[in-house]
């Protein structure tokens, strides 16, 4: 059990480091290259100051927001993160239940351990968004869109900043991935985390066998152990604006384009009839020369005005960070690593506590900034 109040992002991260296999921890934690972009996320957020106004006390503050036609308790979305179900058994379901308690959306990743249909069955009342990567065989992506629609997904997030998985030396060393690469090093890593094996792997094995990416088509699902992914479900290498147009024709609900950092791309997305953007550097996991999203937000917000819904992610660790993103032009923020560290730290109770603490931190930031 955890204490009533969870610690800071860094304290949760350190606790996760003690509880997770090193390969899984590094997969979540790391950036790319020399991690210059990852370091910049924190530095550039910390550099954003907000001139406070005084004598504006507000004891009955309302922080609810409207996003894409739905009302939420505060302007935060749990970001899509691959393989949360490896952090803890039923990880995606746990994250979605916590989001439901806090009155915010949960976004499921294409590369999740729980399928979108199984997630909907487990959390029928939660507002589920769906992130997709387009596969090389676009007809298979059409099948995923249909499964998402059948599960009552309201909002589609199309990630467009990942032509393929960026090389990460620590992943190569640890063997972490789908499939997992067995070696003396990787097996030793797993053996040193018996608690994780008991909490995450054993229940999954007893429930349905080896974990895999359950949103992939039946018969083509990458598993923790097995063959490399079928070429038909590799990330679409030549992704272009014609693919965005295809998704627009195939999906009749709101679409957010994730991974936008340039004004030119924001304007083009608006021309394609998309409802919104997520200003994101993919947590600094793809391109080590990418600018920090906090620096890109003002120009993008000015370019699209009120014609598109703007969200932002990458580096958000606190309520003050959420306020910084909103002050620069985002209507809401997304957080990925924070809920995963909480999940690793103490399961469902820890995730709920961490999100509630972030909400209270956001209210405090508004109060001390004097923002009505």
UniProtKB/TrEMBL annotation:
The active site is at residue 282. Coiled coil: none annotated. Glyoxylate binds at residues 27, 133, 282, 285. The keyword Cell inner membrane does not apply. Keywords: Flavoprotein, FMN, Oxidoreductase. FMN binds at residues 80-82, 109, 131, 159, 258, 280, 336-337. CDD domains: alpha_hydroxyacid_oxid_FMN. GO terms for molecular function: FMN binding; oxidoreductase activity. Transmembrane segments: none annotated. Gene3D superfamilies: Aldolase class I. Its cofactor is FMN. Pfam families: FMN_dh. Residues 1-372 form the FMN hydroxy acid dehydrogenase domain. Belongs to the FMN-dependent alpha-hydroxy acid dehydrogenase family. This is Alpha-hydroxy-acid oxidizing protein. It comes from Aquicoccus porphyridii.
């Amino acid at each position: 059990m955890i204490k009533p109040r969870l610690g800071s992002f860094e304290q949760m991260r350190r606790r996760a480091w003690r509880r997770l296999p090193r390969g899984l921890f590094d997969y979540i934690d790391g950036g790319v290259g020399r991690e210059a972009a990852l370091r910049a996320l924190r530095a550039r957020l910390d550099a954003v100051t907000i001139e406070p106004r005084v004598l504006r006390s507000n004891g009955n503050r309302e922080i609810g927001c409207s996003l894409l036609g739905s009302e939420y308790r505060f302007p935060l979305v749990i970001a899509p993160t691959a393989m949360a179900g490896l952090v803890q058994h039923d990880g995606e379901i746990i994250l979605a239940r916590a989001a439901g308690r806090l009155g915010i959306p949960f976004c499921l990743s294409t590369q999740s351990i729980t399928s979108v249909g199984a997630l909907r069955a487990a959390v029928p009342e939660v507002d589920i968004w769906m992130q997709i990567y387009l596969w090389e065989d676009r007809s298979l992506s059409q099948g995923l869109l249909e499964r998402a629609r059948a599960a009552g997904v309201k909002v589609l997030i199309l990630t467009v900043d990942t032509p393929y998985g960026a090389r990460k030396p620590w992943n190569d060393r640890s063997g972490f991935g789908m499939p997992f690469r067995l070696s003396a090093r990787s097996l030793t890593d797993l053996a040193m985390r018996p608690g994780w094996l008991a909490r995450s792997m054993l229940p999954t094995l007893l429930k349905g066998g080896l974990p895999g990416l359950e949103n992939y088509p039946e018969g083509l699902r990458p598993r923790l152990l097995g063959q490399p992914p079928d070429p038909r479900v590799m990330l679409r290498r030549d992704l272009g604006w014609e693919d965005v147009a295809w998704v627009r024709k195939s999906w009749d609900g709101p679409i957010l384009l994730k991974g936008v950092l340039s004004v030119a791309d924001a304007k083009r997305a608006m021309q394609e009839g998309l409802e919104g953007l997520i200003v994101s550097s993919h947590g600094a996991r793809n391109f080590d020369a990418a600018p920090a999203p906090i620096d890109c937000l003002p120009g993008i917000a000015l370019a699209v005005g009120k014609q598109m819904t703007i969200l932002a992610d990458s580096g958000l660790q606190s309520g003050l960070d959420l306020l910084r993103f909103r002050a620069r032009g985002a209507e809401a923020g997304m957080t990925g690593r924070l809920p995963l560290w909480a999940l690793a730290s103490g399961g469902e109770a820890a995730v709920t506590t961490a999100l509630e603490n972030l909400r209270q931190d956001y209210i405090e930031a508004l109060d001390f900034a004097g923002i009505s």
